[in-house]
Design brief:
alpha+beta, Gyrase A, domain 2, Alpha-Beta Plaits, 3 domains, six-stranded mixed β-sheet, six-stranded antiparallel β-barrel, 8 helices
């Protein structure tokens, strides 16, 4: 069996120079943390501004006269509601309601631009190709696209130095095409942290290091720092943003994952609709909940969740929250135990430690502009 070496992003040399701890993730060599560590990087984003290399993410272009029909068929949300320049969070599902992936859909005048999870690029593209309809062309531009995220309370001030457009007018989940350091980019007001922020997509990979350096220079007054995947995970978990492979996967559906708000049953048929309607009628049997530890302990994925000596579920994501300094996590629990305020126990190293189901997000002081 042929072994594939991990790819390097266009910023790999920058990470190495910064003494980043590099790990293989989703087929790429990626920085998990830098010298200051995950907790410091996490707090930097919460209090100031940080920048992430997210070039491992997947990007697909959907063209053709039937492109909207195709997006409507493949995703649970209603893309017909999107304005030009607007973005939508959505799911792709299998016929049985299981989640193929969660995606971002960018609507432009003549194309849709899809952003997929790094670990699902090949699977997603194959699923889209398998279900392609006449009048649609599909292109995978993942390897030709670099992506930087700039996140934190001062992200707008940093980015405003680099573009001519007034970013006050760029609303959350909208995007523009502009230039940064003479490089054409898609600049979107999106992110995965709970803070105000931007994501920058571009294809001139030979200009990547220069563009990174320009952003870093613009952020000097706020002591901007590069942030690794470790802090990205703790930041997203504090907001209860789902992570594919942890909180959602092919064995979970959007209704039990708390994503009912992106399932639009009133639109025409989409893959998985029939099954999801049936699940809605019969009521979900488990639900993804957020919980915080009442006792000292770190909940880890796959730890068992108990109530009165009975196992009622399993942890999917868990960590010590750098912002709150307590153990937090998500897990699927049986429907009788999913109410806010329910006291539960997490089995950690043969001990049953108390926890409580809470209303997310865990961190409620983010600067995200909705």
């Amino acid at each position: 069996m042929k072994k594939y070496l991990p790819k390097e992003t266009a910023f790999y040399n920058i990470h190495k120079k910064r003494n980043a701890k590099i790990v293989s993730f989703a087929g790429y060599e990626m920085p998990v943390q830098y010298e200051n560590g995950i907790v410091s990087e996490h707090k930097k984003v919460r209090k100031s501004v940080g920048m992430f290399d997210l070039s491992h993410m997947g990007e697909f272009i959907v063209k053709g006269e039937k492109r909207l029909d195709f997006i409507q068929k493949m995703t649970t949300n209603d893309a017909s509601k999107l304005e030009i320049g607007q973005i939508q969070y959505t799911n792709m599902c299998y016929p049985n309601g299981g989640i193929v992936d969660d995606l971002l859909v960018y609507r432009e005048k003549d194309i849709f631009y899809l952003v997929a999870n790094a670990s699902n690029i090949d699977k997603d593209f194959e699923w889209l190709k398998t279900n392609l309809i006449e009048g649609v062309k599909l292109q995978n531009v993942s390897d030709k696209t670099a992506l930087i995220a700039v996140q934190g309370p001062y992200s707008e001030k940093v980015m405003q130095k680099l573009v001519n457009e007034n970013l006050v007018n760029l609303r959350y989940y909208y995007f523009i095409r502009t230039k940064i350091a003479d490089v054409p980019v898609i600049l979107s007001r999106t992110g995965y942290t709970g803070e105000d922020g931007f994501e920058i997509y571009f294809t001139q990979l030979d200009k990547a290091e220069n563009l990174w350096n320009k952003i870093e220079k613009a952020g000097e007054e706020f002591e901007i720092e590069p942030i690794g995947l470790g802090a990205r995970d703790t930041l997203r978990l504090e907001m209860k943003y789902p992570l594919y492979g942890n909180d959602i996967d092919e064995n979970t559906n959007p209704l039990e994952a708390g994503l009912k708000w992106i399932v639009k049953f009133k639109k025409n048929d989409f893959i998985g609709k029939e099954t999801l309607l049936k699940i809605r009628e019969e009521k979900i049997q488990k639900k993804l909940v957020a919980f915080k530890m009442s006792e000292k302990g770190i909940p880890r994925p796959h730890y068992e969740i108990f109530k009165n000596g009975q196992q009622i579920g399993e942890v999917r994501s868990g960590t010590i929250s750098p912002s709150l300094n307590i153990g937090i996590g998500t897990g699927y629990v049986k429907r009788d135990f999913m109410k806010i305020g329910t006291e539960i126990e997490i089995k950690i190293r043969e001990k049953y430690l108390k926890a409580e189901i809470v209303n997310p997000p865990f961190y409620k002081n983010g600067t995200l502009k909705m």
